[in-house]
Design a protein that fits this description.
This protein has 7 helices and 11 strands. The protein has 241 residues and is an alpha+beta fold. The protein has one domain: mRNA Triphosphatase Cet1, Chain A. The N and C termini lie far apart (37 Å).
Amino acid sequence: MAIAKSRHEYKFSVNEKDLLMLGMRLEPLIAKDAHVGEQGYYHIRSIYFDDYHNSSFYSNEAGVDPRVKYRIRIYNAGDASIKLEKKIKENGMTRKYAAPLSRQQADMLIRGQLLPIDQKDLESYPPLLAQFLLLMRTRRMQPKVIVAYDRIPYVDRRGNVRITFDRNIAASVDFSNFFEKEMQKIPLLPPGEHLLEVKYDEYLPAVLKQQLDLGKLRQETFSKYYLCRKRAGNEHFFEHL
């Protein structure tokens, strides 16, 4: 598996007023992701996995490096694009690896079922999937929480920039309805609070930096996975699922 490029990633808390104002500033300067629909955003759901020691959860809590997370991600509650992803954060930089999954493969992994992993099968899988299957067997990786939100994404080829506004962030453990439009979930943030993420490779173009005016925003060490696990774990809302 080739080494992915490291990227800068910064997160900021924004309210509804901030979101609207920043969106108006960015619109003339940067395009929205081509995959958004007419509504101007797409819905993201990710099932995060952790091992029997809850290593990802506790490494986030302790803030140690490197921090590694595995997830299955889909868009708009559909199965047209299903990806297994591995995200690594180290020294303030992030790297991400991805491999496509079929619906059948995703359903099996979500149920905690192993795909065939003899030598012939492992050689046919993408390297990331083969690695994950070995972790399922050796470290008992299991689905722990679903993180869901609506994302307004802007992209700029200069510096490989992605600027995203994440709204309606919610937690769920309703794994059986991961691919359904209706899924039991509970909000993570108070009404009107959202998350701005700024990601880039070598540099953030000066004109975007100026319009974002990040110095006036509150930077966060925000892990959706960690906070959603705490939220879901503290809620009796999900006990009947």
